[in-house]
Amino acid sequence: MGGAAAAAVALLAATRRRPAAPPLAFLLPRVARAGLHEAAAPAAEEEKGRTRRRRRRSSSSRLLGPDIPDTWDPPLRAAARPPPPSGAGVDYESTATIIDGKSVAEDIRFQIAEEVRQMKNAVGHAPGLAVVLVGDRRDSESYVRYKIKGCEEVGIKSLLAELPGNCTEDVVVDSVSRFNEDPSVHGILVQLPLPQHMDEERILSAISLEKDVDGFHPLNVGNLALRSRKPLFVPCAAKACLELLLQSGIELMGKHVTVIGRSKVVGLPTSLLLQRHHATVSIIHAFTTNPEEITRQSDIVISAAGVANLVRGSWLKKGAVVIDVGTNPIEDPTSDYGYRLTGDVCFEEAVKVASAITPVPGGVGPVTIAMLLANTLDSAKLAYGLATESHEL
Ligand code: GUN
C-alpha cells in the first residue's frame, strides 16, 4: 500500500473510532447528539449503550441504517439564533423575482372547479375528501381548516373526523376504514404529525391505495422512485414545488438542485420527482457535514427542514432559485395570534442573492393545498371511469 493510501486508511480508521460531530449536530435532539459520542461514554454507560445498540440492531437491519430521528432544532429556538454579520457573502445590488404561489394556486383551483362542475353533470357526484385530525395541535388545526376551505371553493365535498389526542391507534384505524368503505370519499388524509404514542406507518397503511391522495403509500412512493412506473398519487408538497418551478419557466434538466430535508411529506418525494425531471439532486439532512458548501454550488435550493432562518444569504450561489417549503411559527407579539409563520430561508438576505424565491406565507403552501384538491379530483375521475391516463400498480 502506498504512503498516501496508508495514511488515508489510518485516517478513516481513526474517524471510525471517534466520529466527529457534524457541523449541524446542534440541530439534533439531545438523544441523537448523545449517540454521536457513544465511544466516550464511561463503563456503566458503555454497557447501557451496548444493550441499546443490540436492541437497535435486532429491530432493524444494519444495512438499512441506525434508527436515529432526523429532527432539527425546534423552530422557536432556531429563530433565536443570531443573524450572521451583515454583508457576509451577500450582494445587496440584486433583487429576485418573487414567485407568487397564491396566484398559481388560484389558477389551479379555477381549473379544478370547472372539472368538478363537469363531473357533477356527467355522473351526478362530486369528488369527496375525508380528513382525519387527531389531537388539538394549533398548527394542524389551521392546516386542516385551509384544506377544507379549499374543498369548499372548488365544489369538493369534505368530511372531517376530529379525534381526541389520547384516543387509541385502533380508533384512528377504524375511522380510516370507514372512509375506505364510503364510496362518496375518494381521498383520505390523516393529518401529520400524529400523537407520539401512535404508530404512524400502521395508520397510514390502513388508507386504501386508491384513496391515498397524500401519496404516502409505499407503492405510490416506490412507483415514484422507479422512472419506468407511474404512481397513482404524488405527495402534494412535492408536486407544488415542481409546479412552481415549471410555471416559473425554470429549467431542471442537468441542473444541480439541493433539497434540504428528507421527510416523506416533502424532501424525499421532491428529490424523486426532480430526478424524473433529470435534475442532479443533492439531499441535505441533519447529519450532513457541509450543508452550506453543497447549497452554495446549487442552481436551485428547495428547503423543507422546518428550521426558521436555516438558509442564509451566504448559503446561496448568486442567481440561485429558492423554493422555501418551511412554515415555522415564530413569536411575534405584534400579531393577533402572538406568532407568525416564517420560512426556512432568511428571506431578507436570500432575496438579494437569488434570481427567484418563494415567500412564506404565500408561496408553496397555497399550491400544496391546490395539489391536494387536484389529487382528490384525479381519484374521483379514476373511481368514476373518467380518467384518461393509465397508472401502474
Ligand atoms: N402535515 C404537514 N403536511 C402534511 C401533508 O402534506 N399531509 C399530511 N397528511 N399531513 C401533513
UniProtKB/TrEMBL annotation:
Residue span(s) of domain Tetrahydrofolate dehydrogenase/cyclohydrolase NAD(P)-binding: 235-382
Domain annotation Tetrahydrofolate dehydrogenase/cyclohydrolase catalytic: ranges: 99-214
Keyword NADP: yes
Classification via CDD domains: NAD_bind_m-THF_DH_Cyclohyd (cd01080)
Pfam families: THF_DHG_CYH, THF_DHG_CYH_C
Keywords annotated in UniProt: Hydrolase, Multifunctional enzyme, NADP, One-carbon metabolism, Oxidoreductase, Photorespiration
Annotated GO CC locations: cytosol
GO biological process: photorespiration; tetrahydrofolate interconversion
Comp. bias intervals (Basic residues): 50-59
Biological or metabolic pathway of the protein: One-carbon metabolism; tetrahydrofolate interconversion
Function (record text): Catalyzes the oxidation of 5,10-methylenetetrahydrofolate to 5,10-methenyltetrahydrofolate and then the hydrolysis of 5,10-methenyltetrahydrofolate to 10-formyltetrahydrofolate.
Record family assignment: Belongs to the tetrahydrofolate dehydrogenase/cyclohydrolase family.
PANTHER family: BIFUNCTIONAL PROTEIN FOLD 1, MITOCHONDRIAL (PTHR48099:SF10), C-1-TETRAHYDROFOLATE SYNTHASE, CYTOPLASMIC-RELATED (PTHR48099)
Subunit structure: Homodimer.
Protein's recorded name: Methenyltetrahydrofolate cyclohydrolase
Organism: Oryza nivara (Indian wild rice)
